[in-house]
Amino acid sequence: MPLFNSPEPSFDAVVIGAGALGLCAATELRRRGRRVAVVDPGGVNASAVAAGMIAPAMECAIDDLSLEAAEVLRRARDLWPAFAEATGVRLYGDMAEWRGGDVAELAARMAALGFQHQYDAASARLTTHEDAKVDPPQALAALARGLTVIEAQAQGVSPDGQGWRVQTTAGAVRGDHVILATGADPALEGLPLEARAAVACIAPIRGQIGLVRERLVDHVLRGPGAYVAPMGEGSVIGATMEPGARSVMPDAARCEAMLAAAWTVLGQAPRPLTIDWRAGVRGTTPDGLPIAGQVAPGLHVVLGPRRNGWLLGPLIGAVVADATEGRPVAEPTLHPSRFF
C-alpha cells in the first residue's frame, strides 16, 4: 500500500541514498533552509561498514596522490570541525600512526604534500596530527536527526514541471532538485543520458572490516595490510579494497589475513577476540576522486568517493547545495563532466 496520500508530497530537494554523501548533502541543504527528504530502503549501507576516517594525510601518502587531489582532501578535512559542531557528529582523534613497511617513503610523500608529520627512522614510526575520525553509527544517526527519511526503494525518476518526480516502493515524491547518492548501484529508470553517463563511471569496490568489542588502541594505528582504530567503546580492524566485488558476505580467508596483519601492526601475539566481520560495497571513479555536481537541470550526483566518503562528505554537501542555488562550482575538479 502506498505510504503517501494524494497529492504527492513535494520538497525543495529529494536525496536518494542515506550513506555519508547523501546525508551530508541533505544536512547541508537543510542547514540552508531547504525542505529535504531522503529516500533510502534502510539497513546497513557501505558508510556504516567503515572506520569513519577523516584522514587526508595518511590517505594521500598511502595512495601517493597528486598535490591537486591532496588539496581537495585537505579542504574537505578543514570543513569538518564546524560541520561536526553544527550537526552533532562526534569528531575526535589526536594522532594517527603508521608502523612497518616502507615508512621512509610514506614520510617523504607526506612532506612533499605539505602535511605535518613526525618520522622516527630508528623505530620505523610515522605519526601525524592532521587526521581525525568519526564513528559511523553515531555520525549516521546524528546526520539523519530531523530529516524526513522515506524508508523505501527508489525505482525511477522523471521530469516534473520545474523539478523531478521520484517513484519509490512507497509511492511517488517530487522535488525541485534530486540528488543521486546511490553508491555503486545501477542507474535508476528514467535518468537522462548525462546522468546515466555519470553513473556508468562508477565501479564497485568492496571493503571488509571487523568490529571488536575490546579496546585495542587509543589512536588510529596503520601498517601494511591492516589498520586498527578506536570505535565507540571497542575497536575496528580494517580494511580490504577489492575492486569489482559486490558481495556483502564477509570472506573468511581475507578476514583472517587482515587479522594477522593487524596483530603485526599492533606488535602483539594473537589472542582470542570477539569480532563481527562485515562487508560493504563502495563506489569509485577512474581517478579515485568522487563526482559531485549537476548533470541536468535540477538533477545532481554525489558518487564514487572510494574509501573517503566520510572525509569528503561536508565538502560534497556544500558543492551540491551551492549548485542548487546557482552558485559557481566550488570544486570543478569533482564535476562529473571530466569523464564525458
TrEMBL record:
Presence of keyword Isomerase: no
GO CC annotation, single: cytoplasm
Record-listed E.C. numbers: 1.4.3.19
InterPro entries the UniProt entry points to: FAD-dep_OxRdtase, FAD/NAD-bd_sf
Lineage: superkingdom: Bacteria
Domain FAD dependent oxidoreductase: 12-322
Name recorded for this polypeptide: Glycine oxidase ThiO
